[in-house]
Amino acid sequence: MKFGIISDIHSNSEALDCTLNNMGKVDEFICLGDIVGYGADPNYCIKKIKDLNCRCIGGNHDFAVIGKLDINYFNDAARKAILWTSRKIEENNKIFLLNLNKKIQVIENIFAVHGSPREPIFEYILDKNSAYDIFKKYDFKIYFIGHSHLAGCFSFNKSNNQVNYTDFINGGYIEILKNKRYIINCGSVGQPRDGNPDASYGIYDTEYKVVKIYRISYPIYLTQKKIINAGLPKILADRLSWGR
Ligand SMILES: [Fe+2]
Fold first, then answer.
1. Which residues lie at CB < 5 A from ion ligand 1?
2. pLDDT digits (tens, 9 = 90+) for 69-112
3. Which residues have CB under 8 Å from 127's CB, separation 6+?
4. Which positions fall inside the Calcineurin-like phosphoesterase domain (predicted)?
């Protein structure tokens, strides 16, 4: 079975369309949250996710635009985009966001969450120590996460209790081995922050026991133009070019 893993689309329709075209056929889509926020196409992106019939988790931006989170938690540009999005978003799409789960079981002992199993919405897993704590505290083979917008993988070696980290700035793959456990971030579709502006997504193939991370270019200038024309903060357009 093949799972298409997407996360942190952030209302970027160009990146989402290119990602889905590039991905081709998979058996099921899993979306790890932050469909909206930052970008200018929230309704388009939510509709696309609905049409994919994918299993979807909510992220901090998704819950903030429907008033489920305090927006003071966000920086100035993010807060402005959240307020703009909550004005633009259609009622049926608000209901969709309202009903999103905070964690899902992908298959067997493989799970997905936006932030971390310990704090599904807010926690960033950014270093080996945090990853080690999660490996020790929770029982799982793979946890797919989003939120940081950094494509990479923490692996835990059961034989020596060591955690390693591999980044996927230029894509790559992870072989799922018997003696290891994994926390995998397939990166952000709509606002990568690892220095590579290309959209990032993953495919988990259960038969071949591999997770492949792909980086693909998309017409960033179109997305930037829409952000500027919508009156959203300019920094949200600029950062797409930097991949930061
Ligand atoms: Fe995000």
1. 8, 34
2. 999 989 999 999 999 999 999 999 999 999 999 999 999 999 99
3. none
4. 1-207
Helical (H) or strand (E) element with 172: strand 172-175
DSSP state letter for 228: H
Q: Considering only CA atoms, which of 106, 10, 82 is closest in space to residue 49?
A: 10
**Secondary structure class of 160 (helix, strand, coil):** coil
Give me 52's structure tokens: 């994919």
Beta strand 2-6 pairing with 28-31: parallel
Query: Which tens digits make up the pLDDT trace of 172-229?
Result: 999 999 999 999 999 999 999 999 999 999 999 999 999 999 999 999 999 999 999 9
Whole-number Å distance, alpha carbon 8 to ligand 1 midpoint, is 5
Query: From ligand 1's centre to the CA of 155, what distance in Å?
Result: 22
DSSP assignment of 117-146 equals SSSTTT----SHHHHHHHHHHS--SEEEE-
| List of residues 6+ apart from 231 with CB closer than 8 A | 84
Phi-psi region of 100 (alpha: psi -120 to 50; beta: other; left: phi over 0): beta
Burial class (CB in 10 A: 0-12, 13-18, 19+), 125: buried
Tokens representing 242 are 């930097």
Structural domains of the chain, with CATH: 2-242 (3.60.21.10)
Q: What type of residue sits at position 193?
A: R
